[in-house]
Amino acid sequence: MSTPVVLAAGLHGAARTAAVDELLARHPGSVAIHHDLGEVTRGRVRRSVRDTGRVLETADVRLAHGCVTCTVREDLLPQLVRLASGATLLIVDLWDAVEPRSVAEAIDCDEARDLLRLTAVLTALDAESLPDDITRGERLHEVGKIAAKGDQRFVAEVLARQLEYATGLMLHGGDEDDHELSLRVLAHLAPVTPIHTVHDLPPITGPALCTTELAERVDPSTARLPADARTEEIVTTVWRSRRPLHPGRLFEAVDELVMESVRSRGRFWLATRPSRLLDWDAVAGIVSVEDAGPWLAALPEAAWDLVSPARRAAAALDWDPEHGDRVQHLVFTGPDLDVERLHGLLDSCLLAEGEHPGHDDPFAPILDIKEIA
To answer: What is the pTM of this model?
Structure first.
């Protein structure tokens, strides 16, 4: 019988610790393992294992390369396998800035599947800090929360990925007003994810999760994007179109689009790159545009069997006789968004009937370098 494993993630360390403490208290025989990455840039990680009442062991781990991936591969996974036979539940208390996806996928591996089963990915959130942190443009190193040498990620970027990947969210701390505001924020950013308080946690020892399905919830081609919504001052709006975007006009509009909203994401296509599905990911004024592979319409039908059923289903829902699955599908969330003006700006970036986009593509330095890499 495999031992259930729960990931507890979150930038807000006090909220995460409270959640781990509650899980340990609710599940006699459970243990929590934590890797302190405070000195990871020096190749040193401090590992601790505890139960509900005491620290069972600590050790310094030396790594050839200071990063989350090698910490998981070289130490976390072997320790989980070692502890599995003596524990009723294994809780992985992730370092503040660790995004849970890479850890979840490492645990869900062939060599450990008979011993371990990943049953939940929980992200703990401090109700007082969440509304501010999702708008913070500081890098992790500016707040002392890096997870690897050279870590250039932003606070809001990491927080968004932690809460959007999770199977459950846990709110802790703050007063009643903080709690209500955080609930409104989460209703827009993660509308289908269950939200609990630390003292009202869901059952977490059931069947194994499928990390492929978890990934499909957030990957550009299959992401479950939020719908239009308005909750008091917070607005989420969906913009869709079948026409291609003019790369020059979109590039000029990027700053205004990302500053207008707190969070935006989705998939889009440029007139100069009709075969490529492009990923739009922006939070707190920082935008990332990446090539996410070909549209299915750009592939020969014989290649469709090589993509996942979820990808084929998503393409079928978006299929158009002229453009196939090519679509502009971007979602923007922010306080008091001027939806009409935002949609008007995006509409102005579309290629006009009979217009040629020219050969200049200001996105090329970004997309071509990433594609080569």
So the answer is: 0.93
